[in-house]
């Protein structure tokens, strides 16, 4: 069994009020030096069987048609290996 | 004769009963439709009601859009059947690409419930015939994900083609681009909006105004005289 | 996970010397010994789990029971109570064949730890109580208390709590029609998150938590059972937070971090719909929601209330986490679950309905003709108890109580001696300061995060005196509800404070034109192990019970939340009282807002120099001392009758009760809501200050159309209710003649900006 | 400028209604072979200046006290290098 991670973020041109709210709170918490914050979603999918190219392609389709709304969001799909060093797939 | 107007119940729909009541008060016959049925029971028009279908857990409307009933509705809407999406229904219509753009979380990050002033921009759609263009009305608004966004090209096109049906007046409650509260498709049969006309059909109840009733009388007239 | 050896009943009997961790589970030594005595052997681990959660303060009311009895003993003669205390919620007859059930519950500690989820699951829990009675939930209310408005931690807790209540209630499709928001430093480490729900049904649809009929099946349905919140509500609600948890900076989180539950409102919405469908088809013999103490509570209560026993196969409980031990399954407080008793030939249909709504449903046992609750795991018996000893025969404590020695000094510190404004200018400034103070300021920033309109039956919602819901479209029959509590008054005098809370909620309901019928309450106090707190509790309960008797409104049920304290410091004693009323035709309802210029303003009731515990004493002098306003319940009753008659006969167009902040607060609210000002004249015999700020109880202001004036004043005179003409609805300012003028604009800014600027 | 990513996920024992809703929808979309879905949050922080250990430690504190509620959530902090191969920090 392997874990595939799909990260979904708002496209850069779309206003991200959640990220902004975090950023605005930073000075109050004593944080300086962070020039931008964006907040998105992370999906962890536990895949039965091997995560080969075909499986990844299907997950890519899933992300494109379902997990993300590509009118407003970008996404990446990657396999998360055990040592948690992620490998970029897209 | 009267018209049969279907109201779909998705799991998590909340305003389905209220939409049926509004249809009844307008003099049409409400027909309950179930998300798992492809069959539309020969209705003449469909309302996708407000609520939090599937909890809106992924994105508002994202899961409902794939329900069996939507397959038929998408097909029929493309063929000209009038469809009204209210709030969650509007979100479903954008997710289903029957209407352009997308709905995002309110820019202030809170749910907002208020009596909202709107201007009717287009009184020619299947659902707005009983209004006049430029008319100002008050309709309750209540949502978490009411921020309408689309790219500049789409927004320009919507405006050029007169497809912005309602705009927020005095106060933009969610950060919707160009104050857009509701839009229609090219043919004018599919309309989506965030405010809730079905909650403004009886004096004394809710805000006590009846500014929402014309939605339901408009469609009735259109269907009966058609 | 295989546990060796499984602690079966047989094993327990054979190993009497094994020590179980009763102390860790919150039991006292003598309680443990009683369990051993009841069973005639040591309990198994699973039995101990059940007893420990069911005998916790939260579930057993062991400290409060002896006092709560008064609600029954002193209950007024009445013909409205269809189901009284002891069930999930009381049921009241509202006429035309309709019954209404309502209840308020607390979720205080969990909301401090995780404000969003704590508050959300609080709503979830109370809604399930209402469904379990057979009713469709139609509205929620949320009385809330937070620490100081400008304390940094309030910025963490309040927005989370409000978002949680809204997030859950909005998603369920329940209009939120009322509540309270109160700030006081005493709630800093112990915010009070109370949530109430009203449900409506026909008389014949009332359901009870009762497992009867041998052979009937026990069906668990809803969410899968997980490890979240194990011992959560029960153990959590029974312990005091550490003093250090409330760090000086305020941004610190509580040190104690027990597992909290996450709510799934979507699942709960499905649960509501499928349960109501099953009720409609008469498939359910008995039903119980799973709240605190989860399956332990549901199975033992169902069995204890019923005629027979019950056998449960724990292996059949659908799990979210397969490693859970049987003890954990029994204690789990996973949300959004219900337990129904269904006749065998109706099981298939019941399961079908659940499937229609995508709700997981599983037969986990059956009713037996014995009188034992037996629970099996892997084929072995791990629980064999008399369910009554678990559910209803828990320990009862007569905790010592004593009037604290500081009470006299507190009462002697008379607020009447505080310096009063000396000039008109000062008076004007104090009015502005009062209406802008966090407790008196508009709560719109909060309440607009709640859906008021869903279900299409909301007649009145906040900021009206009471929320009102139409329950029959044809006849216009409606119900109203208001919740009130004043910790400051109650601290000064717990007996009177509780009655003032009752009187205010009663008055609020009557102000809308509805007739008050019945009461529910949520009693929030500090540690019962402190005799001073116990005295406050005893006095408050006595006051409430006496008050309900006098007003003729029975207590239908309620909730007790103890241990609301940080270290040695308890919160103000805070009984929150909910009053339910009925109105034959909602079109006669009376709103708070001024409707028309030229209408005459009348003050009903007597105004005395009463400033103890007042908003004025808090806002201007940061003072709490003296005695609270006097209560005259006969007068309250008369006032209510007049308000109801005036509304029914169309003699008044708006009404607003007077409470904290006094007359000026009420006038400002009515003016701002209606967008119409008022010209006031200080009546003979009163000075302007007392006229504006006194908090004498038993009062309201009404706006009377000129054409009705004679009829209205005649009625008041005939009934002996003082009615004083104090001015007229007029213009776009609030003017007190000879004193000051405040424009609506200036008032609105003062009243509406406070909360957003503190929280947004 | 560097990007630090904070991933916040509900603890494994905590109910994840969002992930469940996605997972239950998969079969309807024709997806098989995904045994579990969890949905969490992803924060992208643009940090001015070097992301040294001190900076990471501060972001770790931020995540712990503000971005996540550790009563119910776990989090990880990592620097995202340009080739998007992330390095696990916690
Ligand atoms: N947390 C809340 N949720 C819903 N309504 C609220 C809340 N807090 C206050 N309200 C509403 O705001 C209005 C004013 O509250 P309050 O001043 O406490 O009323 P009163 O003094 O008449 O009891 C009431 O309608 C009350 O129900
Ligand atoms: Mg009031």
Automatic annotation (TrEMBL), chains A, D:
<comment type="pathway">
    <text>Purine metabolism; IMP biosynthesis via de novo pathway; 5-amino-1-(5-phospho-D-ribosyl)imidazole from N(2)-formyl-N(1)-(5-phospho-D-ribosyl)glycinamide: step 1/2.</text>
</comment>
<keyword id="KW-0963">Cytoplasm</keyword>
<keyword id="KW-0067">ATP-binding</keyword>
<keyword id="KW-0436">Ligase</keyword>
<comment type="subunit">
    <text>Part of the FGAM synthase complex composed of 1 PurL, 1 PurQ and 2 PurS subunits.</text>
</comment>
<protein>
    <recommendedName>
        <fullName>Phosphoribosylformylglycinamidine synthase subunit PurS</fullName>
        <ecNumber>6.3.5.3</ecNumber>
    </recommendedName>
</protein>
<dbReference type="Pfam" id="PF02700">
    <property type="entry name" value="PurS"/>
</dbReference>
<dbReference type="InterPro" id="IPR003850">
    <property type="entry name" value="PurS"/>
</dbReference>
<keyword id="KW-0658">Purine biosynthesis</keyword>
<comment type="function">
    <text>Part of the phosphoribosylformylglycinamidine synthase complex involved in the purines biosynthetic pathway. Catalyzes the ATP-dependent conversion of formylglycinamide ribonucleotide (FGAR) and glutamine to yield formylglycinamidine ribonucleotide (FGAM) and glutamate. The FGAM synthase complex is composed of three subunits. PurQ produces an ammonia molecule by converting glutamine to glutamate. PurL transfers the ammonia molecule to FGAR to form FGAM in an ATP-dependent manner.</text>
</comment>
<keyword id="KW-0547">Nucleotide-binding</keyword>
<dbReference type="InterPro" id="IPR036604">
    <property type="entry name" value="PurS-like_sf"/>
</dbReference>
<comment type="similarity">
    <text>Belongs to the PurS family.</text>
</comment>
From TrEMBL, chain B:
<keyword id="KW-0658">Purine biosynthesis</keyword>
<keyword id="KW-0963">Cytoplasm</keyword>
<comment type="pathway">
    <text>Purine metabolism; IMP biosynthesis via de novo pathway; 5-amino-1-(5-phospho-D-ribosyl)imidazole from N(2)-formyl-N(1)-(5-phospho-D-ribosyl)glycinamide: step 1/2.</text>
</comment>
<feature type="active site">
    <location>
        <position position="196"/>
    </location>
</feature>
<comment type="subunit">
    <text>Part of the FGAM synthase complex composed of 1 PurL, 1 PurQ and 2 PurS subunits.</text>
</comment>
<dbReference type="Pfam" id="PF13507">
    <property type="entry name" value="GATase_5"/>
</dbReference>
<feature type="active site" description="Nucleophile">
    <location>
        <position position="87"/>
    </location>
</feature>
<keyword id="KW-0547">Nucleotide-binding</keyword>
<dbReference type="InterPro" id="IPR010075">
    <property type="entry name" value="PRibForGlyAmidine_synth_PurQ"/>
</dbReference>
<keyword id="KW-0067">ATP-binding</keyword>
<comment type="function">
    <text>Part of the phosphoribosylformylglycinamidine synthase complex involved in the purines biosynthetic pathway. Catalyzes the ATP-dependent conversion of formylglycinamide ribonucleotide (FGAR) and glutamine to yield formylglycinamidine ribonucleotide (FGAM) and glutamate. The FGAM synthase complex is composed of three subunits. PurQ produces an ammonia molecule by converting glutamine to glutamate. PurL transfers the ammonia molecule to FGAR to form FGAM in an ATP-dependent manner.</text>
</comment>
<dbReference type="InterPro" id="IPR029062">
    <property type="entry name" value="Class_I_gatase-like"/>
</dbReference>
<keyword id="KW-0378">Hydrolase</keyword>
<keyword id="KW-0436">Ligase</keyword>
<keyword id="KW-0315">Glutamine amidotransferase</keyword>
<protein>
    <recommendedName>
        <fullName>Phosphoribosylformylglycinamidine synthase subunit PurQ</fullName>
        <ecNumber>6.3.5.3</ecNumber>
        <ecNumber>3.5.1.2</ecNumber>
    </recommendedName>
</protein>
<feature type="active site">
    <location>
        <position position="198"/>
    </location>
</feature>
